[in-house]
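Action item from last meeting closed. Structure (214 res):
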């Protein structure tokens, strides 16, 4: 059993997407980030960076004590290795998948997050920041479009944790002022991932656990 500490944000969606795809049983613990649940000592014991998501695996593969894991990219890699799914054991494909997982965690997510913040939530407009992060968002969409022009999925011919990590950030493309018509390979990939049954289940779950429009 996996205990998932979660809020319906892009990083939270990554883990429900994986768990639904893999068919792993899990318990969902809703972290109300607007109320400060992420700063409670019991959550910090699992996620010292006070960010969701985090998991506790009560049945790790070494048959030892339960193990807590924080940071979404690490959680995806951990679950992929635990289940043997969505991360190839073949050297080159595995390396490519981990490259694109790192690209999402280190680049796409943070830059799109800054775009979202300065466009929608900054207390006063900062034109330089808005333009800077909008241009970087467009650049990253271009990088992704080029990759998907060459491959059915981000890391190759098969769906992987690179796709699972990236999709939730593309869901909000309209709020990022991105028109997917300009990125046809991304649009094609996005529609295919959106249609997957596990994707639909994960997002339906998000709708039932949403608090204060998070």
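Sequence:
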């Amino acid at each position: 059993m996996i205990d998932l500490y979660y809020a319906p944000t892009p990083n939270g969606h990554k883990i429900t997407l994986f768990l639904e795809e893999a068919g792993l049983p899990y318990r969902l613990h809703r972290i109300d980030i607007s109320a400060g649940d992420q700063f409670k000592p019991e959550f910090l014991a699992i996620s010292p960076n006070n960010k969701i998501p985090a998991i506790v695996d009560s049945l790790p593969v070494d048959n030892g004590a339960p193990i807590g894991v924080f940071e979404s990219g690490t959680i995806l890699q951990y679950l992929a290795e635990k289940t043997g799914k969505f991360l190839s054991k073949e050297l080159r494909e595995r390396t490519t998948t981990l490259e694109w997982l790192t690209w999402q965690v280190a680049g796409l997510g943070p830059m799109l997050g800054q775009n979202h913040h300065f466009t929608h939530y900054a207390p006063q407009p900062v034109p330089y920041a808005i333009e800077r992060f909008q241009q970087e968002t467009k650049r990253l969409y271009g990088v992704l479009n080029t990759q998907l022009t060459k491959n059915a999925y981000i890391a190759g011919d098969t769906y992987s944790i690179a796709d699972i990590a990236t999709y939730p950030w593309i869901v909000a493309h309209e709020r990022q002022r991105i028109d997917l018509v300009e990125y046809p390979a991304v649009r094609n990939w996005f529609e295919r991932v959106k249609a997957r049954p596990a994707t639909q289940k994960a997002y339906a779950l998000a709708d039932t656990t949403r608090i204060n429009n998070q």
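Note appended to the action item: The longest strand covers residues 2-6.
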